[in-house]
Amino acid sequence: MAKVGKTSQSTSALAGMPSLDGFDRKILTVLIDNARMSNVEIAKSVGLSEAPCSRRIRRLESEGVIRGYHADLDPAAVGLGFIAFVTLVLDYVTAATADEFAEAMRAIPEVVSCHIVSGGYDALLHVAAKDSQTYSEIVFDKLRRIPGVKDVRSSFVMRTLKEARGLPLPH
Fold it and tell me: Tens digits of per-residue pLDDT, 99-156?
């Protein structure tokens, strides 16, 4: 499958590949664990004074290393207890259908993430729905109606054993 849609900022961060030193990694590790920590607490935790710590955090944000700060929600607690991973196979891809597919993915709020992948299918989706009926409506009324979608296959989450809050940082 061809490249689908516009790339995210993470791709541009890779192209420029900011240099991360030990303090940057410590700051990122602290923020991954608790992004609500004050600058004073972060600075103390990583062994810096407040001003340099604050400058580093602003630099990490401006370079796109830190893309944002988010609340980590429990899906069941907010009424989205039906989680599925969905593979899609696309019949054909042109520049127009690729853009249309990317826009369709962004327009479906239940699609938590969508990745264009290699292998036996073209896209891998993480979908969160209220229940199986709602999920069925997402598949039949939204996913299958996207031009070029040839095949949709679902795997339902039975139990989550590990879910990372952040990325593993290389040392």
Answer: 899 999 999 999 999 999 999 999 999 999 999 999 999 999 999 999 889 999 999 9
Encoded amino acid at 28, one letter: L
Q: What share of the chain is helix, strand, coil (3-state, %, to 5)?
A: 40, 20, 40
CA atoms within 13 A on the CB side of 7: 9
Q: What are phi and psi of 150, to 5 degrees?
A: -100, -40
Residue-range domains of the chain with CATH: 13-62 (1.10.10.10), 76-156 (3.30.70.920)
What pTM does this model have? 0.78
